[in-house]
Amino acid sequence: MYVSMKEMLNKANNEFYAVMAINCFNLETARTVIRAAEKENAPIIINLYQDHLLNHCDSQLMTPIVKMLANRAEIKVALNFDHGKDVLLLKKAIDDGFSSVMVDASRFGLAGNIAMTKEIVDYAFPKGVSVEGEIGCIGSTEQAEFTEGSMYSDPDDAVTFAQKTGIDALAISIGSSHGNYPQGMIPEFDFERLKYIKKRTQMPLVLHGGSGSGEKNILTAVKEGINKINVGCDFMNANLNAVKSRLQQDANINYYDLVDQVEKDSIELVRYYIRLSGSSNKK
Ligand SMILES: [Zn+2]
């Protein structure tokens, strides 16, 4: 069933688990993720990153594909525009039928972030589309701010931001980063910050950069109030590793067999995260 993130994440908030949001960019990756969720009997979010919409599959093309896959499935599926930085692209995705969008406007400071996020909320809500906002700057392993503490979400700003925008879900920064961590590194999460923001907002909270966070961090984050976990890199790595391994087994494999095998091989990584998030059998 094709749904917005709102009811999905409110249920997760009430029942203390998280829903996985996996970055996809085409039919094959979306189908892999939905198949994994079906096997786990779990709700799932298909995340589409802005650059992938621009470079691989635009929102007009991707919406009917995900809708069809969702409506054939026995589980709830949301389609979310991940890190929408451009107002026109966000509105276009809503018009094209995305069931959810995430507004990435934290670079504008608190007032600017509120203004842009509220503009999208006002556009999305009458159409039944849910909105995720972001407070604080979630780091990237490929950028200089990676090790700086200044990127953590300010709890008071988080409360103000949530109240003034009316968003359905709030992405907070507690120490995770986008991208692959250096080999062997496990990030340190600020759980006190998470607990405090949860206590003050009581709303669905989102962890970005879930890849490579480590089982302990994810389990504790879910326990302390994270209700949506974004994973991109680990899924892309699983797909790439499947390609490498299938080619190693048979360098002359037919391309269509290769694609089919990669889809099947990559399901396990998604199932692993679904089980970790506590959303198995929560459809
Ligand atoms: Zn993110």
Features:
single chain, alpha/beta, 283 residues, TIM Barrel, globular, eight-stranded parallel barrel, two-stranded parallel ribbon, 11 helices, binds zinc ion
Helix-strand blueprint:
Layout: H1 5-15, E1 19-23, H2 27-40, E2 44-49, H3 50-55, H4 59-72, E3 77-84, H5 87-96, E4 100-103, H6 109-124, E5 130-135, E6 139-140, H7 155-165, E7 169-172, E8 177-178, H8 191-201, E9 205-207, H9 215-223, E10 226-231, H10 233-249, H11 255-277
Parallel strand pairs: 1-2, 1-10, 2-3, 3-4, 4-5, 5-7, 6-8, 7-9, 9-10
Helix pairs in contact: 2-4, 2-11, 5-6, 6-7, 7-8, 10-11
The structure holds zinc ion.
What does this 3D model show about the protein?
There is one protein chain. This protein is of the alpha/beta class. It has one domain (5-277): TIM Barrel, CATH 3.20.20.70. 50% of the residues lie in helices and 16% in strands. It has eleven helices and ten strands. The strands form two sheets. The protein has an eight-stranded parallel beta barrel, surrounded by nine helices. A two-stranded parallel ribbon has the order 6-8. Helix 6 packs parallel to helix 7, helix 7 packs parallel to helix 8 and helix 10 packs antiparallel against helix 11. The longest helix is centred in the last third of the chain and has 23 residues, at 255-277. The protein is globular, with a radius of gyration of 18 Å. The termini are close together. The model is unreliable at 145-150 (pLDDT under 50). Bound molecules: zinc ion.
